[in-house]
Amino acid sequence: MLKKILVTSLFLTFGFLVLVVSILRSASLRHSSNFAPPNSKTDNGQKLSVNYYFASAGSVLPDSPLWGVKVLRDKFWLFLTPGPTRKSELNLLFSDKRLMAAKILTQKGKYDLACSTILKSHNYFVEAVNLEDEARKRGDNTDELLLLLTKASLAHKETIQSLQDVFPDGLKTEFSSIIEYLSGFYDRSSSYLKSKNIIIQ
Q1: Mean pLDDT, to the nearest integer, of 5-11?
Q2: Are 105 and 113 spatial neighbours (Cβ–Cβ below 8 Å)?
Q3: Does pLDDT of 175 surpass 50?
Q4: HSE of 54, CA atoms in CB hemisphere, 13 A
Q5: Phi and psi of 192, rounded to 5°?
């Protein structure tokens, strides 16, 4: 019995260390890597009107039995990430990944799960926006992050609209408030950036 407890403890400790190392390595990634050349495209070839490159959804999707582990990892990653600016970048990354996961689920015909994944993606995006606002109000220079969020809002809106076209009628109404939020944020943030002579391409 004692041997089983010891072996289990060792496995859990090893798993925890692997998780921490993975997070610390990834924490150095800047979201600016999500910029792409002109005529950016999403995974299915959809052309966006803004230069934005979505992060990959990864191999573990919401329909996987391992999804719960990935969600737990993301929460732990957020917990370890310091400051509102870095947390905002990370929330945007998670938002991107979930939106791309929703696209794959849509292609599989799993519309209900895709819909809930889009809603979760949007929750992460809203949190990213709120954290950027918090960082800016405390005096941080968040112009680069705000530019990224502005581009992301348009890319997310266009992606969701393209998915909406293939969703069953009963689910299409779920996205109207999201599209309205993204449109409003884009208008406000782009106006602010233009006042600072920052060009959105």
Answers
A1: 55
A2: yes
A3: yes
A4: 29
A5: -65, -45
